[in-house]
Design a protein that fits this description.
alpha+beta, membrane, transmembrane, 353 residues
Length: 353
Amino acid sequence: MVYILAAILIFGILIAVHELGHFLSAKACGVRVNEFSIGMGPAIFHKKKGETEYSLRILPIGGYCAMEGEEEDSEDPHALNNQGFWKKVLIFAAGAIMNFIAGLLIIMILYSSAGAFRMPVVSGFAPEFTAEGEMGIQEGDRILSIDGERIYVYSDIPLFLSRGDDNTYELRILRDGEKKNLTLSLPYQEYTGTDGKSYQGYGLYFGVLEEGTLLAKLKYSWLNAVDFVRIVRYSLVELVTGGASVKDLSGPVGIVSTITQVGEDASSWRDALDNILYFAALIAVNLAVMNLLPLPALDGGKIFFLVVNTLSQHLLRRQIPAKYENYIHAAGFALLMVLMLFVTFNDIVKLFQ
């Protein structure tokens, strides 16, 4: 029950933060906001201040920012539909920007107590390792990329080695201030670890640490957030190319299951909290990226239609009628709900397998 409440709280806060981004940007751009609500369902508190009604609703599952001229054209000069191109882009994108900032802030909080960060620098090799040498990899080499994927943080190394199609990898390294390209065979097999015990891996040791100064904490927080964006992009590419299927997607039920797992796998309540917060940061960045996809009903879809209408107005002297655009967004929303129902059903099935 604790983990279910944690999941509800995470979703509620992230959606509220998203809508807060729309609200703040709308106010900054002089757009009239008719209502700003935290939560959904019946209102338990509401107060009108100026032109905006502020509401607190009973279900802690998000919120909304109702702007004048958002759903239909309005004659009000402060309506959204009467604003310029860049103001609209800012307002539509602000929700995703706020989600990304939320994810970044969570990572910064988690890293605030870090004493050091493990660097992607080779510190040694297992006795069974055979790709060491002048033409291979050497101690002190900093791995910059694997198969064209940049290494932002140390955890990227096992991730992209595990995703290789075979045992051969294209590595870009930094050695003595000079960048070099290497083609290495790094088989996944049994090696001897530094503790003398056998393990399954690639035979590389990484023990070089960077002191956890304020600058290092800020740098690794940013790199980790950017790495989350790359993970979402990578997952989308896998979905499109067939490397993953729709059945691999997770909805609210799957996320609650994951939160429960990362919490229960922790050795203490502090570790459980850190794991859940780290996962919440990933969800926040995921929401930011997904909302900017150029799909109907999403903020990215609204930006896409804004660009199309602007180009159409300049080239053809006409725009897509607002009612047709609303039809498309409504259809897109319906399809997203169908996908959500399918994913939720699939998550429930997984729980009983």
